[in-house]
Structure formats: C-alpha cells, structure tokens
UniProtKB/TrEMBL annotation:
InterPro entries listed in its UniProt record: AAA+_ATPase, ABC_transporter-like_ATP-bd, ABC_transporter-like_CS, BCAA_Transport_ATP-bd_LivF, P-loop_NTPase
PROSITE patterns: ABC_TRANSPORTER_1, ABC_TRANSPORTER_2
Lineage of the organism: Bacteria, Pseudomonadati, Pseudomonadota, Betaproteobacteria, Burkholderiales
Protein name: ABC transporter ATP-binding protein
UniProt family annotation: Belongs to the ABC transporter superfamily.
Residue ranges constituting the ABC transporter domain according to the UniProt record: 8-245
Pfam families per the UniProt record, alphabetical: ABC_tran
GO molecular function: ATP binding; ATP hydrolysis activity; branched-chain amino acid transmembrane transporter activity
GO biological process, one term: L-amino acid transport
Keywords: Amino-acid transport, ATP-binding, Cell membrane, Membrane, Nucleotide-binding, Transport
Length: 251
C-alpha cells in the first residue's frame, strides 16, 4: 500500500479504561477514498478503537496519525474538538442526535460555520436530501420522533453536512430493517464516490461485503487480520476462523 495514500494510521495503540487494558497494540492503515471495514466479535475492541481515534479515550502507547500528523498517543495534547477540526467526523453507535431539537436544528448544530439555514451550502443540503429524502420530509420534526432508520440517516447527515476527509461510523445498520439497510448502503456508496474516506464498524456482513474495500479484523483488542474485503468475502474458512461465522449465511 502506498504510504502517501494513507489517511489514517494506527501503530501499536494501547488503550486502558480504568483498570481494564482494552486495546493491545492495534495496527492498521486506512487508505484515502476507500471504505475500510473494522470487523470482529462483540467485545473485540472496535468501538474503543474509534473512540481512541477521536480522543474520547487516550492511547497510552503507540501512535495515531492523520495525514501524517500525530493526533493520538503519549505526548499528544489534542482534544476531541481539535481532532474533529482536522476533518474527522464520528457517528457513534448511539447516534448522538439531540432528540428535543428538530432535524433542521440538529444539522445546523453540526455545521460549524452556519448560524442559520441560509448559511448552509444549498447544493450540499440538496445532495443530503437526495441521499436521505425523509430528512427533507421531517425537516421541522423533533428528531426524537423519527424512526430508528431515520435517526441513523440524521446521524450520518450531521457528519457530512460539511465536507469531511474521514468518517468514523459505528454499526450504522444495528436494529434497522433490511430495506432501510439497503438505502443506507446506497447512501454510503454515493458518499464513497465523492472520495470521502470511511472507517466503518459493522456486524452486518452483507453490508460489509457490499461496501468494504479493505478490512481489519479485531479479536481481544488486537488486529488479527488485514487485507482486501473481497478476499475475506470469498474465503469461508477464513471467515469461520476469524469471525466464527460465514458471510454466505448473511446474504
């Protein structure tokens, strides 16, 4: 892999949360303009990895570099807002939307330079409405009244309301109906076509196969496999060994 094409690089990352040692030397790279899947069984450390990248938890050892600049690791004093300012957006599993605010107000809050809707990039807003038509329909609804799928769409829309170089998305399909998942896959494909780089944690393996270019598989706080997603998708024995199940069973 060409080092100049790497947007995000984790090297030897260890994270402790209280008395617990969660990440044990995590190593992987995220190439520009691609979707990198972060897979693994529950409790493998995937969410901790995303939160460590964002500075929500500190990396006690190792380094996290974004476009060549250290953003995490011993001696790095960047807070989460500083990391976000560099062009990284995070969509947590909890979605993190403000339930009492409207769809419009949620998007305005996420647009750092906008005070009113008139300050938003009209073309970009229409593009987001094209990806997620429900958001236009429910523009003035409190976000808490949206369905689960609509809330997930809003969470992703907030992350992309301004151009971002890297999106970290944690299990976007969790609890969603199959038809909504297909819509989400289509939206993420369109986003990928704009050369946005995505690091995606996902338990839905059909979605992983549909979207992923690269894959890193975690187990017990370590990366135990790195490679092309297409190769993992075609190797059922490897899927069974790494993940305990087969992609073929999740078509």
């Amino acid at each position: 892999m060409n080092p100049s094409n790497i947007v995000l690089s984790l090297s030897g990352v260890h994270t402790h949360i209280g008395a617990y040692h969660i990440l044990h030397g995590v190593d992987f790279d995220v190439p520009a303009g691609q979707v990198t899947m972060l897979l693994g069984r529950n409790g493998a450390g995937k969410t901790t990895t995303l939160r460590t990248i964002m500075g929500l938890w500190a990396a006690q050892q190792g380094s996290i570099r974004f476009k060549g600049e250290a953003i995490g690791g011993p001696g790095v004093k960047l807070g989460t807002p500083d990391i976000a300012q560099r062009g990284i957006a995070y969509v947590p599993e909890s979605m993190g939307i403000f339930s009492d605010l409207t769809v419009k107000e949620n998007l305005l809050l996420a647009a750092r330079g906008a005070q009113t809707v008139d300050d938003l990039d009209t073309k970009r807003l229409e593009w987001i409405f094209g990806l997620f038509p429900a958001l236009k329909k429910f523009w003035l609804y409190p976000a808490g009244k949206l369905s689960g799928g609509q809330k997930q769409m809003l969470a992703v829309a907030r992350a992309i309301v301004e151009p971002r170089e890297l999106l970290l998305i944690d299990e976007p399909s969790k609890g969603l109906a199959p038809a909504i998942i297909q819509n989400l896959i289509g939206a993420l494909r369109e986003l990928k076509a704009t050369h946005t780089t995505i690091l995606l944690v996902e338990q839905n393996f059909a979605m992983a196969k549909a979207l992923g270019d690269q894959v890193a598989v975690m187990d017990d706080g370590r990366v135990v496999h790195r490679g092309a997603m297409a190769e993992l998708a075609q190797d059922e024995a490897l899927q069974q060994r790494l993940l305990g199940l087969s992609l073929a069973a999740h078509q």
